[in-house]
């Protein structure tokens, strides 16, 4: 894959590394970056050569600082030239839905996504991290749900997803209403990230190693596990159990089950067909 603002590499077998690649602008998002992010994860979702994905930001200073202020000003200028409230609202609604769709592509990706955050991780950074399945960060990471500081409610997913990811709803309301920064230690304490590493290099290495471990497993099992975890998050237990039964009625017929069992008995490394 070749993009202008997204860098996709294959650091090891069946692992893809996706980097936000505007380091000179602190990986702030402009329209083309939105589009490329959605395209990259849509393609990776069905790429049989990929079984796990690591998402990070290029450069040492920031994962992303959110929306590019110049780009945001251009949208405001377009709206100002529209004739009435209804047309301005329609334009903005379409724009918000397009941005949401790009982040949704990360969450809906069939492959597990490990997000590695570092440095400035503000606003949109939290929205994007919420779409990942695993979140890691470096000790210097500075987070914030920043939108109230610019006069709006966050509209790209933090307010919908954070309460489902973090059990402490009081904390979610606090950081969302005040826009205050919180550090890596606090993010781990509330469960937003699972591990804090000393620096970006260590966090990225940890994430890539985790991705390699996941990629060594049965892709049928891994992708099924992600699907069922997502379903369990959004549905009652009884519904999820029924869905799991239907899902596994097909999945357990995979050759992967026999391969995994035999490799365990023979103490050999299993090899699984592409999916």
UniProtKB/TrEMBL annotation:
Source organism per UniProt: Sporothrix epigloea
Name the record gives this protein: Delta(3,5)-Delta(2,4)-dienoyl-CoA isomerase
UniProt record similarity statement: Belongs to the enoyl-CoA hydratase/isomerase family.
A Pfam family matched in the record: ECH_1
InterPro entries: ClpP/crotonase-like_dom_sf (IPR029045), Ech1-like (IPR045002), Enoyl-CoA_hydra/iso (IPR001753), Enoyl-CoA_hydra_C (IPR014748)
Pathway, per record: Lipid metabolism; fatty acid beta-oxidation
UniProt keyword terms in alphabetical order: Fatty acid metabolism, Isomerase, Lipid metabolism
Gene3D superfamilies to which the protein is assigned, alphabetical: 2-enoyl-CoA Hydratase, Chain A, domain 1, Lyase 2-enoyl-coa Hydratase, Chain A, domain 2
CDD domains (UniProt xref): crotonase-like (cd06558)
